[in-house]
Amino acid sequence: MQLNRENINFFLNDLDTPITRVINRIIIGLIIIWSGILVAATYQIPDNINLIIDVINITILLIFVVEYHFRFYLWIVNSTIKDENTYYLILDLIAILPYSLAAINPILIYWLGWLRILKLLRFIHKQFLFIRIPDEALIFSRLVYTFFAIIFIFSGVIYQVEHPNNELFSSFIDTVYFSIVTITTVGFGDVTPNSELGRFLTILMILFGSVLILPQVGDSIKQLIQSANKVSDSCDPNSDVQNQDS
């Protein structure tokens, strides 16, 4: 099969055929595995298993580098700067960029690598998981994803900053616990960052949570009210009479 623009666009962006749905599900699975590798790296792993994980990590990276070049090619020949694909392309670049910056400082892989979860945003749309969903379900899906992404990214970065000198952040789960307690404003206070950078990242996490999550909560409530009103109107026999009179 000739690898041209139409074929690349078909395999990466079409969701109406079984083979393209399988390809996109594989990409989603690889993103989840790739993100999970970072979590696994925060624990003590035997050297032989760690070697296997490194091979998987590099393999997935190479796959996503190739995918990025294909998507960049499609963007060049098809898209304009205002196309939403531009934003997805930037997120794809952010996911693989830390490995390019590793030549400057290898620790950037562990600091910026947590941003790779943002690649999933491309797949949260009207055909979420390749099944058409209503608007209210789409809004809720994006809300859940935003909450999860903020927790995942900031937990990972705060862990990298705090765990060398703060025993309260001895594992990734401890940091996730801290992030959830903080962003939900429960604030038990039993786990707190010691470093200035850790506290600054905590402030950023709270701000991002407020800016990104609260508006989506409002949209979800608004959508639910509109859906409830539509159901109420459809069940009200007087509404048909009023419409006829008008």
TrEMBL record:
<feature type="transmembrane region" description="Helical">
    <location>
        <begin position="22"/>
        <end position="43"/>
    </location>
</feature>
<dbReference type="InterPro" id="IPR027359">
    <property type="entry name" value="Volt_channel_dom_sf"/>
</dbReference>
<keyword id="KW-0812">Transmembrane</keyword>
<keyword id="KW-1133">Transmembrane helix</keyword>
<feature type="transmembrane region" description="Helical">
    <location>
        <begin position="171"/>
        <end position="188"/>
    </location>
</feature>
<keyword id="KW-0633">Potassium transport</keyword>
<keyword id="KW-0406">Ion transport</keyword>
<dbReference type="Pfam" id="PF07885">
    <property type="entry name" value="Ion_trans_2"/>
</dbReference>
<keyword id="KW-0630">Potassium</keyword>
<dbReference type="GO" id="GO:0016020">
    <property type="term" value="C:membrane"/>
</dbReference>
<keyword id="KW-0631">Potassium channel</keyword>
<dbReference type="InterPro" id="IPR047871">
    <property type="entry name" value="K_chnl_Slo-like"/>
</dbReference>
<protein>
    <submittedName>
        <fullName>Ion transport protein</fullName>
    </submittedName>
</protein>
<keyword id="KW-0472">Membrane</keyword>
<dbReference type="InterPro" id="IPR013099">
    <property type="entry name" value="K_chnl_dom"/>
</dbReference>
<feature type="transmembrane region" description="Helical">
    <location>
        <begin position="200"/>
        <end position="218"/>
    </location>
</feature>
<feature type="transmembrane region" description="Helical">
    <location>
        <begin position="55"/>
        <end position="76"/>
    </location>
</feature>
<feature type="transmembrane region" description="Helical">
    <location>
        <begin position="139"/>
        <end position="159"/>
    </location>
</feature>
<dbReference type="GO" id="GO:0005267">
    <property type="term" value="F:potassium channel activity"/>
</dbReference>
<feature type="domain" description="Potassium channel">
    <location>
        <begin position="148"/>
        <end position="223"/>
    </location>
</feature>
<keyword id="KW-0813">Transport</keyword>
<feature type="transmembrane region" description="Helical">
    <location>
        <begin position="96"/>
        <end position="118"/>
    </location>
</feature>
<keyword id="KW-0407">Ion channel</keyword>
